[in-house]
Amino acid sequence: MAKSIIFHLLFASLALTSCSTQAPKGTIHLNQLGFYPKGPKIAIISAEGDGAFSIFSADLKKEVFRGQLKGPQTSSFSGKKTWIADFSEFREEGAYKLAVSGLDTSCAFEIKPAVHRQVAEAALKAFYFQRMSTELPEQYAGQWSRPFSHPDTSVLIHPSAATEKRPAGTIIASPGGWYDAGDYNKYIVNSGITVSTLLSLYEDFPDYFDHLTISIPESGSALPGLLDEALWNLRWMLTMQDPDDGGVYHKCTTAGFEGFVPPQQATSPRYVVQKSTQASLDFAATLAQAARVFRKFEAELPGFADQCMNAAVKAWQWAKANPAALYDQQKINEQFDPDITTGAYGGRELEDEFIWAAVELYITTGDEHYFKAVELFPEEEITLQSWGDVRTMAYYTLLRHAGSLTPAAQPALFPLKKRFISFADGLARNTEKTAYLAPMENEARNYVWGSNGVCANQGMAFLYACRLTNEEKFLDLALANLDYLLGRNPTGYSFVTGYGSRTPMHPHHRLSETDGVENPVPGLLVGGPNPHQQDKCPGYPSQVPDESYLDDVCSYASNEIAINWNAAFVYLAFGVEIVRNNE
Ligand code: G3I
Ligand code: 9MR
User: Does the reported pTM lie above 0.85?
Assistant: First the structure.
């Protein structure tokens, strides 16, 4: 009894300490949005407490749960110790703070159903904010409204892309689409995996998205909001195909990056650059998938599915005839002017792109010759999807359509499932030994440029593993990745702009930086910790892989945003939300 009173008094003093919104040395790391009532609830404490922790009502007046810290765990990157506060068994809905004697209390978080719905919707809405060749009126964009920018109706054929029918300097129209990232360019390779991730989300959960409206100008149309948004970029992608031969331009870009000026003032000449095998295959895969998805909406978009299909087939044929048209920016610049110095998104090895395109074409058409055109398992290991490695996108599609495979593909299913589960197990191996109980922390090599995208893509893989096996552990792993991105990580940031108590305020994002609005455009996932620090910005707090993050506009290697990372986050957040709320 006496002990409990002392304990209570200790915690009472905490009422005066603030949550660590601004303090860089916040020591309680948790999903800053909160938890599902029946789900796991973990916070990580990066300083030694007195062995106990408490959950208080958000006004700190009432202690509602008390537990013992477990640990310590040791970070294999920094050697630092952490302790685990597990309050999974506390299930009462409400707003709370977590307290450990002697430390700042956490900021308030919630326990409630659909706890990630808002952030998932915001991350989807972020694609609207990335739209180009359009005005963003206040009705949809609020304080981030902006005038029409980047018409892209007078785009030049760069000498690297010149043909007899379209010599250098020919003007074509390539309007629409999303800004790739913090820059003002559009890249087919990155667009492909991005749109495909969103279309996969639709294919995996059609009922949910048939009923989800988002606040965009098309809302009220007969299409689901998710597909209206995807359409915005698909229509642009179609303009990137050379109508004469089916090859696809690698990107639509200025010669160099524009400065940090508002989009309507960024008026440097724009080019489409060299047709590449990689862009053509990513295009073929994405458009073949789009043909499948939009077939259902023939009445609303007459002819669109056929248009996508024809474009996909032509791009595939071009790639088969030009299997080694690599995008090598240095080589291009040795031969042609002006030099192109924007994002490269180049790949040297295209086996995975061939597999992905072949599988999407096969699933949409049922034509086995596509399937037979590639070797499905060029190596034993399955690798995580990224813009440069799209093989697993093919596997997701095969798994999703497992019930309708023709005889040529059926034998692949068993080995695919087996390999996929062992891949997902591999991603999670040793998670319980990590300092943040996060699969990301298993390997230093996860910490590349866009490590948060790696984390979100891993989460997507866990959701597929969950679907395949029905094992709860995979759902918990997906949630662990979401927890990581929303605050349960050593930096103390929730990495999605505007969502969480401590979020990036200075992303490398020209739209946010030049709009005169204090808060960045919401719903954007920043790249995340990256010890390679390619931007060489001063002020990184650390070189340790999972701590090397800088919330400064200078830091494009850790604090840029990008559509591919956002799409993976949208998949993860909605996926967890849908599966958890169906329990
Ligand atoms: O794969 C290697 C790995 O083997 C090696 O250990 C590791 C350490 O250096 O590097 C890995 O490669 C990295 C690659 O991304 C794959 O993740 C490269 O170093 C790194 O430079 C490369 O970064 C890319 C970056 O552009 C620079 O080209 C990012 O993935 C990519 O997301 C980013 O994309 C940019 C666009 O070019 C332009 N628009 C903005 C966009 C986002 O920053
Ligand atoms: O703003 C550019 C960003 O989108 C790219 O990811 C990054 C790497 O390619 O480059 C940024 O642009 C910088 C350029 O590379 C070097 N000079 C400064 C530019 C703006 O910070």
Answer: yes
